[in-house]
Amino acid sequence: MAQGLRFECQPGCTECCRQPGFVYLTERDLLRAAAFLGMTAEAFERKYVYRTRRLLRLRTPREGRCHFLREDGCSIHPVKPAQCRIFPFWPELVESRREWQKTGAYCPGIGKGPLVQIETAQKEAADMRESYPALY
């Protein structure tokens, strides 16, 4: 990988939110989102979360990709899950030039903005691994 990666989230873009896949949650993500919405953790989980023995993830609505995605962006942006906050510095993207470039096909922020030092990107990737140990 290079000495750094260029990435800058583009205003109004929600392409990362529109891709197939699941949004995984940490327990902390669940608590923060529930509080932000003025709900108990239990009520939030009943309405929005699918829990297995090892993982929590947002339920996928019948229409669209995410209950919280609106035309103008994420309705829980200040408390969005770690997975969303860390994107695109996921381990599988930071560790593979090919995957980074593939993601750039739908993410207009990849290749733009200031150079993000590779150490910074790797730290974000490590945070992702730490937040979701069942995935890595």
Describe the structure.
The chain is 35% helix and 18% strand. It has 136 residues and is α+β, with helices and mostly antiparallel strands. The protein has one domain. A hairpin with a 4-residue loop joins strand 3 (49-51) and strand 4 (56-58). The longest helix is centred in the last third of the chain and has 14 residues, at 118-131. The protein starts with a strand and ends in a 5-residue tail after the last helix.
Reconstruct the topology from this structure.
Blueprint: E1 4-7, E2 24-25, H1 27-36, H2 41-48, E3 49-51, E4 56-58, E5 69-70, E6 73-74, H3 82-86, H4 91-94, H5 97-103, E7 110-117, H6 118-131
Antiparallel strand pairs: 1-7, 2-4, 3-4, 5-6
Task: Compute the average pLDDT.
Answer: 94
Could you tell me the radius of gyration in angstroms? 15 Å
Which regions have little confidence, pLDDT < 50, spanning 5+ residues?
none
What oligomeric arrangement do these chains adopt?
A: single chain
Tell me, what's the shape?
A: globular
Extended strand count:
7
Instruction: Determine the number of helices (DSSP H or I, runs of at least 4 residues).
Output: 6
Sketch the major β-sheet. Answer: 3 strands, antiparallel
Q: Structural class, please?
A: alpha+beta
Tally of individual domains: 1
Strand content: 15-25%
What order do the strands of the largest sheet run in, or round the barrel if closed?
2-4-3
Order of helices and strands: EEHHEEEEHHHEH
Q: What is the share of helical residues?
A: 25-40%
Cα separation of the termini? 20 Å
